[in-house]
Design goal:
The complex is a heterodimer of chains A (290) and B (669). Chain A is α/β, with parallel strands linked by helices and 290 residues long. Chain A is built from 11 helices and 13 strands. A 7-stranded mixed beta sheet of chain A has the order 7-6-8-9-10-12-13, with helices on both faces. In chain B, strand 9 (190-202) and strand 10 form a beta hairpin. Classes of the chains: A alpha/beta (290), B mainly beta (669).
């Protein structure tokens, strides 16, 4: 009977609908592969229920009537049109910030740590850190990078902000900051984080024994000396917690930071580049890449 | 098998790029790639348009699809300051800022994937080397661009970028079309297009193969030629092209082959000189480049080969023809060095061999040569060096540089440019640009001579030059985008065909056509492009206002019973041009319309009222299929433009001859 109902349901629901009955909450994914799938799986596990979802990579979709809450995975999903009155939670959308609207109440789950958590984490990782240069490209990040700079004084760190508008500016930005900085930090900025740029950063870091810290495990795997940020899985879980508080009638803030922050160390890069981690860092790392 | 073939083609680059290795985390790169795509698309215009040190307009794939452009030429009509018209000798002649192209269209550089492609004998570029379905985007640079691209980028450059894979895996599509042909909207249907492309990508390796066949037929028109004979004129441009582009790591390969047929209007605009007969154009080009990116900058070396042929009729039977063949072989070494304090130095050296193989008049029936026109196996060499120093920090971007060029036949040239860009925020950019450019005289213009001495080349010609000052403001506030440019341009030593007494190689010729460097002229103008884009709607409006000088005014002698007159470049160009478009989706249905208004202009002895033409399309999209029905030249009027090359009794030429219908379908996978 259950199978019969499921088959009947699949025949009746519109194209693009993947699973589950119509509900007040639906998930929309930019794609149901890779990072998005990992975050969505963690989201469902945290919700302890199956949530209906749509996969944007498979075409257009129509929200079921009665949908009140949407959880979007990816900036493409987050930037879609949603009916007025919808509550939107979005994650895995680095560099994308949905404009504030009176019609849609939106809350973002950041992949970055909160400014204080980031700065204290970097300080633990690099006790001699006094001057930190933050590099980014996506224009939407500017205000958020300023917030980190403003908070840095309390941690004894002087932050310099360098927005790299184009990839060709990156080498000049690195070279110009060489004598003036102790380390670089890079947010998960899709416009800056390209294969070519990461290769360049890795070469620069090794050539000058200058640590470059990043914000996702992927960046650490690709050659930054360490990363400090929320995993895809943690982002999904945080989105679920946020959804639950929303269902409970609480008003979420516009930006929510995950409490599960992973420190990833790339021991191989550190060794090759002549960068040493402090003794405690290895113990607090979630992963130490060989 | 496909991969192996590709690897064989890319062998050299693969060996050198092998050290770069494969990504550790494909999921991570897929994620970043997907997110970058969304962030880039979120901006109404690519950031490169805002930060480019040149004044650039981009027509992207979405524009091409949403406005249902049928050719590169048609898409270019949407760019303010650029019009694609025709002369009596050529179809689809791009014209920038009213600086007219004369017998051969050689003042605007046409490139495919940034590789210059032009005929070594006559200098002309061809916009139809690639069908529109093979195009990812078209980048248009208005104004002088020789420091970047060398000779021929005199008044602008058009870069046609081929389709690229969107993401890892396979993509492709096919399309076909039927049109109403020479009978106009009541004519029988003929196949108007058939095209397809296939693209593949995995990590840093990708390739695209695209094939395109397009036939643009226009309704038959009764036309009176220069001798007063009435012709039943069938305007057509047919093209077939095949392109391959691929990359592996830092190695890139481009291959392009094309062949086109089009109707000709005769060497002297008469049936007796070949009007109504078929002209053939064809070409083959190959390009390889390899880019290395060490920490200090970038090094790129490249080599190109471009062979082109144009075969034109010269008599009423199409038996006497001219075969014009030339090729260019070039190599370049370029480097970009990142210097301290946000400075960058970009420099390069290039070497190009040009081979004007023949400009031969021959009889098709016997193969017998009538004349080699003094242009058999003509060789020349060009050496060039350029350097640009730039600084980009904060809101400012500055750049200054120059190119020195030495041509074995036409002497040397030094062109410079300087740009200052101020970007106060992500939505605004202000550019001040000074640029110079040149065009080396072609073998045709320098050495042509027929047995009957109808036209004489001038070996003493100097390169023609331009200079422009531009101020541009770009602003984007979603969903609006505005691009306003004001400019002052001067044109010097223009290579022009005149009639009079001329001495060459010690021989005096009386009352002959010959080439010389004409007096300069100048113009001021304003160009405005406004765009509106939302998910379901897209609209644009392009406006051009131009005021040109009469410094190059000259007397045109009487022709038969017609009185003498005077002529100057801007006599034939309207003071304003306007074009616009609107595209709207309604669920699975969509509709779009484009219009062009070529302002009132003068002809040699009279005036030509403003010319208006418009296209309207409606369509239906279902899954991967798309069906479109287009009405081209909606008003069914003959669109005319001034005849400014021949300057005899025919004072205007048809650009479009009437309404036609076209159905197209697309399938994508």
């Amino acid at each position: 009977m259950t199978y019969f109902a499921a088959i009947l349901l699949l025949l009746l629901v519109p194209a693009g609908l993947q699973a589950g009955p119509p509900a007040a909450t639906v998930a929309v994914m930019s794609s149901d592969r890779g990072a998005y799938r990992e975050a969505f799986s963690a989201f469902q596990a945290e919700m302890d229920s199956e949530v209906m979802y749509f996969d944007l990579s498979k075409g257009r979709f129509k929200l079921p009537a009665g949908t009140r809450r949407v959880v979007a995975f990816g900036s493409r999903a987050a930037s879609m049109y949603y009916p007025p009155g919808t509550d939107l939670i979005y994650c895995l959308a680095p560099g994308f910030f949905r404009p504030v609207s009176a019609k849609i109440r939106a809350a973002k789950v950041s992949m970055r740590p909160a400014p204080g958590r980031l700065l204290s984490g970097l300080r633990n990782l690099h006790p001699g850190l006094k001057r930190l240069n933050i590099l980014w490209s996506a224009g939407n990040y500017t205000e958020h990078m300023r917030a980190i700079r403003d908070a840095a004084g309390a941690y004894g760190i002087e932050v310099t902000l360098t927005r790299v508008r184009r990839a060709s500016q990156l080498p000049s930005a690195l070279r110009s900051a060489l004598e003036k900085q102790d380390a670089f930090w890079i947010p998960p900025d899709p416009l800056l984080v390209t294969r070519a740029n990461l290769r360049l950063l890795r070469d620069f870091s090794c050539g000058n024994s200058m640590p470059i810290y990043s914000s996702t495990r992927g960046m650490a795997e690709e050659g930054t000396v360490a990363s400090l940020g929320a995993s895809f899985r943690a982002s999904g879980k945080t989105a679920a917690k946020l959804l639950r508080s929303l269902i409970d009638g609480k008003t979420p803030p516009e930006m929510v930071y995950s409490q599960e922050i992973d420190l990833i160390l790339n021991a191989g890069v550190a060794r090759r580049c002549g960068i040493a981690f402090p003794p405690g860092a290895r113990k607090s790392a979630a992963y130490i890449l060989p | 098998m496909k991969f192996r073939l590709f690897m064989a083609l890319m062998l050299t680059g693969a060996v050198q790029a092998g050290a770069s290795g494969r990504a550790v985390s494909d999921d991570f790169w897929d994620f970043m790639g997907e997110e970058a795509k969304t962030l880039t698309v979120a901006s109404p215009s690519p950031e490169s348009v805002f930060s480019s040190v040149s004044n650039v307009v981009v027509i992207d794939r979405a524009d091409i699809v949403r406005y249902n452009y049928s050719s590169v030429s048609e898409a270019l009509q949407s760019v303010p300051g650029l019009s694609v018209i025709r002369t009596y000798l050529m179809h689809r002649v791009p014209t920038a800022r009213g600086a007219l192209q004369e017998h051969y269209a050689n003042k605007i550089l046409v490139m495919i994937n940034n590789v210059p492609m032009w005929h070594a004998m006559t200098g002309e570029g061809d916009l139809d080397r690639v069908g529109i379905d093979s195009v990812q985007r078209i980048e248009v640079l208005l104004g002088p661009a020789s420091v970047l691209y060398g000779s021929n980028a005199l008044t602008g450059a058009v870069n046609i970028v081929l389709r690229e894979p969107r993401q890892d895996g396979e993509q492709g599509g096919v399309s076909g079309g039927l049109s109403s042909g020479h009978g106009g909207y009541s004519g029988r249907l003929e196949i108007s297009q058939a095209s397809g492309y296939y693209a593949w990508k995995e990590g840093e390796t990708s390739y695209t193969v695209a094939a395109n066949s397009r036939s643009d037929l226009q309704p038959t028109l009764v036309f009176e030629d220069e001798s007063g004979s009435t012709l039943s004129l069938k305007e057509y441009v047919d093209n077939r092209s095949l392109s391959f582009s691929g990359r592996h790591g830092g190695a890139k390969v481009l291959l392009n082959a094309y062949r086109g047929n089009q109707n000709y209007l005769g060497n002297s605009l008469t049936r007796a000189s070949g009007a109504l007969e078929n002209e053939v154009r064809e070409g083959v080009a190959g390009h390889y480049s390899y880019t290395e990116e060490p920490a200090w900058g970038q090094v790129k070396y490249s080599g190109s080969y471009d062979w082109q042929r144009r075969n034109i009729p010269r008599d009423a039977a199409g038996d006497l023809r001219s075969d014009i063949v030339g090729s260019r072989l070039s190599g370049k070494l370029e480097a970009l060095v990142h210097l301290p304090a946000y400075f960058t130095l970009e420099s390069g050296a290039g070497l190009e061999y040009r081979y004007g193989q023949r400009y031969q008049n021959y009889y098709n029936s016997t193969g017998e040569t009538e004349s080699d026109n003094g242009l058999s196996r003509h060789k020349s060499r060009e050496d060039s060096f350029y350097a640009q120093l730039g600084r980009e920090e904060g809101d400012w971007k500055l750049l200054a540089g120059g190119r020195y060029t030495k041509d074995s036949n036409a002497g040397d040239n030094l062109s410079g440019r300087a740009s200052a860009i101020y970007m106060p925020d992500d939505h605004n950019s202000i550019k001040a640009i000074f640029s110079q450019s040149f065009r080396t005289p072609t073998p045709f213009e320098q050495y042509f001579i027929t047995s009957t001495v109808t036209v004489l080349g001038n070996p003493d010609l100097k390169p023609e030059r331009t200079e422009s000052w531009e101020l541009a403001w770009l602003s984007s506030h979603e969903p609006f985008f505005l691009h306003v440019t004001g400019y002052y341009a001067s044109y010097m030593d223009t290579i022009y065909r005149a009639r009079g007494n001329f001495t060459r190689d010690g021989v005096a010729y009386t009352d002959k056509n010959y080439y010389y460097n004409a007096p300069g002229y100048h113009a001021t103008g304003v160009e405005v492009r406004a765009r509106y884009e939302t998910r379901n709607s897209r609209a644009f409006l392009s406006f051009e206002r131009l005021r040109g000088s009469r410094d190059d005014e000259r007397v045109v002698p009487a022709s038969g019973s017609l009185p003498a007159s005077t002529s100057w470049n801007f006599k034939y160009w309207p003071r304003y041009n306007l074009s616009g478009g609107l595209a709207q989706s309604f669920g699975r249905f969509f509709a779009m319309g484009n219009f062009n208004l070529f302002g009132e202009s003068r002809t040699l002895r009279g005036r030509l009222p403003a010319q208006f033409w418009a296209d309207l399309s409606v369509g239906y999209r279902a899954g991967s299929y798309r069906h479109t029905l287009a009405v081209r030249d909606l008003t069914d009027r003959v669109v005319r433009i001034p005849e400014y090359v021949r300057l005899r009794s025919v004072e205007n030429l048809p650009l479009y001859t009437g309404r036609r219908l076209e159905y197209t379908f697309d399938y994508r996978f």
